[in-house]
């Protein structure tokens, strides 16, 4: 299967690989997917006191497109508010990476990971 | 010696045509182009003689009578002809039940499925975790109306060798026709059809350094096995398979099988040495699991799961070596290998497998390069893997509730 140059670039040089302290109240963690399906994404975001995402990290078990999708969103998330982050759509990820139809689920998974990380962070913050 | 990349380690998908084979084929494309069925002139006679010499060579490799060899387009056609042909011929007298194994090639499984659509019933035996079938379970699957059993000699994904003698003897005792897919076996294991209790056996040229597009089916003469033709026409191959014979392809298969007969003993020793070197190198990596029995196995195959690394991304990472995550026939799909699933491998391990298959032209340098490449890329991908991180944290992944999608 031929991958786009952008997928290959993110796959060869993944951005923001790593782990943040999941117990930090400023850190939200989203873990989506399942080994049975061949992809698991862990996405973490860290917000500052003004509610802006200042750091994002990921680790992904999955195909090249899954790795590229999660690497790309860590770039996009930085500098956004939680509400802006929640607006990132899978179609934008798929378009940016030129994902073929059989790989669209990778972008869906990345969107789900963002939503899960945002929800986790919100649950930690006082209402 | 320098290593030329990409290194070909996918000999179970196909092999290069041996240069000696190609050389022998060429005159039969240009000069000796006659139709072997033409009886009225020397063009036909020359072609017919070449076809019969090749038939002798195929027969000799497997210790059969040349009259028991029927040319086909490859092992897929041989499997279809054997299974559909025998099941249909004998169903009236014997019954409509077929036994095969879950780890068979798709050409066998889908041929049996087609017969199910036509009113047959089928049992798909599960192998043991090492890939071999339990003879008692095989025996228990036989019913009074069982007409045919089909079990492959060497598995294409994990390289395990089934006990064809024991299975065939059970078939004989129960008057069941026994078909064996031997596409992956020629030149790798000794085959003696004069003594094996096998009625029908499928062969392919291109897994044994011959050309693609040619194969053969062994059809036993004593006792005589009958099959219904699946391809109708001019009545070639004693009516079992019509169609003008592809002389140059047949010559290629004959030469490839002749070379295999003469060289397999020495070649297999060399390949085993390389395979063992590859295995000991890869076993230095943590969390690697060999799929399939290590003893009852051809030396050419090493199927390994690298836990916590997904197979497709791994194949992308090791693009300097040509390997596959399963069979070439299923690599277009996103499903994990059905063969590994049938062994009871967990989803993670089934998704993390690589089949290395070694052949005639593999060198020690190729193997050493592969080991170094795998070590570096597995390390990199595990750095990226949340599952590896959880494993290092002591989390049992089988106890995690995953949000399946």
Automatic annotation (TrEMBL), chain A:
GO terms for cellular component: cytoplasm. A scaffold on which IscS assembles Fe-S clusters. It is likely that Fe-S cluster coordination is flexible as the role of this complex is to build and then hand off Fe-S clusters. One of its GO terms (molecular function) is iron ion binding. One of its GO terms (biological process) is iron-sulfur cluster assembly. This is Iron-sulfur cluster assembly scaffold protein IscU. Pfam families: NifU_N. Residues 2-125 form the NIF system FeS cluster assembly NifU N-terminal domain. Belongs to the NifU family. NCBIfam families: iscU. It comes from the Bacteria. InterPro entries: ISCU (IPR011339), NIF_FeS_clus_asmbl_NifU_N (IPR002871).
């Amino acid at each position: 299967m031929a991958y786009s140059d952008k997928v290959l670039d993110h796959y060869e040089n993944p951005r923001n690989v790593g782990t943040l302290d999941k117990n930090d109240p400023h850190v939200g963690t989203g873990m989506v997917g399942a080994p049975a399906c061949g992809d698991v994404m862990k996405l973490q975001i860290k917000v500052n006191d003004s509610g802006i995402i200042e750091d994002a990290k990921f680790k992904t078990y999955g195909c090249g497109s899954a790795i590229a999708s999660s690497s790309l969103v860590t770039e996009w998330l930085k500098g956004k508010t939680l509400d802006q982050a929640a607006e990132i759509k899978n179609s934008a990820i798929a378009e940016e990476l030129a994902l073929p139809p059989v790989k669209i689920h990778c972008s869906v998974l990345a969107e789900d990971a963002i939503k899960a990380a945002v929800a986790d962070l919100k649950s930690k913050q006082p209402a | 010696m320098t290593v030329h990349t990409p290194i070909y380690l996918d000999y179970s998908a196909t092999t290069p045509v041996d240069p000696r084979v190609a050389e022998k084929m060429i005159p039969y494309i240009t000069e000796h182009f006659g139709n072997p069925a033409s009886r009225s002139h020397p063009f036909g006679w020359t072609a017919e003689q070449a076809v019969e010499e090749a038939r002798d060579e195929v027969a000799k490799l497997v210790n059969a009578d040349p009259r028991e060899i029927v040319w086909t387009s490859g092992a897929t056609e041989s499997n279809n002809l054997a299974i559909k042909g025998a099941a249909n011929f004998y169903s009236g007298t014997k019954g409509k039940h077929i036994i095969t194994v879950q780890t068979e090639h798709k050409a066998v499984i889908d041929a049996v499925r087609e017969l199910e659509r036509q009113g047959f019933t089928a049992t798909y035996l599960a192998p043991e975790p090492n890939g071999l079938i339990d003879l008692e379970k095989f025996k228990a699957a036989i019913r009074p109306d069982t007409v045919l059993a089909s079990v492959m000699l060497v598995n294409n994904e994990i390289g395990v060798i089934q006990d064809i003698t024991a299975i065939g003897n059970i078939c004989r005792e129960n008057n069941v026709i026994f078909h064996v897919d031997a596409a992956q076996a020629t030149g790798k294991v000794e085959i003696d059809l004069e003594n094996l209790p096998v009625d029908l056996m499928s062969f392919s040229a291109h897994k044994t350094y011959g050309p693609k597009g040619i194969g053969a089916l062994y059809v036993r003469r004593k006792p005589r096995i009958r099959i219904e033709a699946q391809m109708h026409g001019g009545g070639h191959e004693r009516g079992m398979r019509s169609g003008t014979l592809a002389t140059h392809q047949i010559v290629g298969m004959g030469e490839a099988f002749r070379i295999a007969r003469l060289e397999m003993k020495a070649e297999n020793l060399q390949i085993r040495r390389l395979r063992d070197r590859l295995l000991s190198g890869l076993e230095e990596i943590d969390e690697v699991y060999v799929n399939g029995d290590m003893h009852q196995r051809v030396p050419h195959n090493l199927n390994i799961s690298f836990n916590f690394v997904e197979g497709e991304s791994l194949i992308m990472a090791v693009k300097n070596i040509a390997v596959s995550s399963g069979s070439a026939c299923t690599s277009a799909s996103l499903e994990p290998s059905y063969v590994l699933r049938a062994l009871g491998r967990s989803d993670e391990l089934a998704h993390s497998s690589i089949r290395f298959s070694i052949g005639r032209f593999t060198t020690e340098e190729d193997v050493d390069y592969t080991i170094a490449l795998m070590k570096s890329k597995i390390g990199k991908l595990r750095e990226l893997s949340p599952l590896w991180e959880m494993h290092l944290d002591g989390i049992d992944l089988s106890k995690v509730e995953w949000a399946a999608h």
